[in-house]
Write a structure and sequence with these properties.
Layout lengths: L2 E8 L2 H14 L4 E4 L3 H11 L10 E2 L11 E4 L10 E4 L13 E7 L2 H16 L3 E6 H8 L1
Parallel strand pairs: 1-6, 1-7, 2-4, 2-5, 3-4, 5-6
Helix pairs in contact: 1-2
């Protein structure tokens, strides 16, 4: 059954996405970032070319000839997808195709509208019995100060 990880209390959804993509790539995971629109896909593409500050996260679109060997795929369209391990959802709703992935990552910012959408997604997964893990990034940030 799909495992769901919620990363909450984040300041920037896209910067947190870049950090999680870099971590997944360094661990050998294959990740698909499902963006809500073409503009978000372009912005994330730009950020991934500069993350970390001294490098970049290898990524491309699912239809690219290198998609089969690239650790991070980014698109607002879920098909076609080569095999990937993790879905990172940036959509406000639960993707209809999420259960084909062993793991799903959801990111929730401190913005009230985003928190409301995140709670709705959380209830959806919880009410269907999915394994849930929570990562409060606000606590980690406060502890570092």
């Amino acid at each position: 059954m799909t495992q769901i990880d919620f990363y909450t209390h984040v300041q920037s959804k896209l910067h947190t996405t870049c950090q999680l993509c870099a971590k997944a790539a360094s661990q050998g995971s294959r990740l698909f970032v499902y963006t809500p629109d073409a503009e978000t896909t372009r912005e994330l593409d730009r950020l991934l070319w500069t993350t970390p500050a001294t490098g970049f996260v290898p990524h491309c679109r699912p239809g690219d000839p290198l998609a089969g060997v690239t650790p991070v795929l980014v698109s607002e369209h879920p098909d076609p997808l080569p095999h990937v391990d993790v879905l990172l959802n940036l959509h406000p709703d639960v993707p209809t195709f999420f259960s084909r992935f062993p793991r799903v990552i959801e990111i929730v910012t401190t913005d009230e509208a985003d928190r409301h959408q995140g709670r709705t997604r959380y209830r959806f997964y919880r009410d269907r019995g999915y394994e849930m893990r929570n990562h409060n990034l606000g606590k980690a940030r406060r502890a570092a100060v």
